[in-house]
Amino acid sequence: MPSLARVQSMLTQPAFREGVRDMRAVSLGIAAWGLVTGVAMVKSGLSVQLALAISLFVFAGSAQLAALPLIAAGAPLWLILGTAFCVNLRFVVFSAQMRPYFEQVPRWRRLAYGYLIGDLNQVLMIRRHPHPTHDPQQAQYFLGVSLTNWVAWQIPSLLGIAMAQHIPGSWGLAFAGTLALLGIVLSLLADRTIAGVIIVASALSALLFWLPLRLNLVAAIVGALIVGMAWEAWSSRQLTANAVLDGTKP
């Protein structure tokens, strides 16, 4: 485990502080959605203890929200687990993208980094450091955005779990959380790949709304994942071809 001196050294690194600053810009939306998710878990019938365990150990808001209607409807366990698995498939891609950055670090640190990977800190990391160099500053930046993301999600989520029984449904927290998430999503539309994935997922979800047990969400996630991976592969081939034509790559 890292010593106190090492933790203090990390917190003072410029790259770490830069990561904190970049993630802080979107942390309000993350916090609002975390609060809504915490409330929703308890309101759906989960015990406080189970909701706390899911928030801390699963740490995947979209999977939690996708599984909750199925749990409330009494869906079979295989469907609940399959839905959560499909929702989280994107983390396989995220982890593959992160491997070149951290392949030199010890296994326990890679496991910890894998736990911290999320949608927004992944996007910020790739934008800030598009090319892995094994520079320690890249790891510092990743920890800055990732730990800020974790705190911004977990504290409101735990508060939502603790306060769920005292929050009336008439407050419309779900709608507020949806607006917060929408604001985060719209901030990512500058990236063409992410914009395409969002459009595909939204279209499939709407077109397949008639499917039972929210299976339209599963289909939308799988379709968006396929489109995103295909687009990334095509973009890589284009970049390689352009580099060859320009003479910058043999």
TrEMBL record:
InterPro entries: Brnchd-chn_aa_trnsp_permease. The chain crosses the membrane at residues 25-43, 77-96, 141-164, 170-189, 194-211, 217-234. Keywords: Cell membrane, Membrane, Transmembrane, Transmembrane helix, Transport. Its main location: membrane. It is a multi-pass membrane protein. GO terms for cellular component: plasma membrane. It comes from the Bacteria. One of its GO terms (biological process) is L-valine transmembrane transport. It is found in: Cell membrane. The keyword Translocase does not apply. PANTHER family: INNER MEMBRANE PROTEIN YGAZ. Belongs to the AzlC family. This is AzlC family ABC transporter permease.
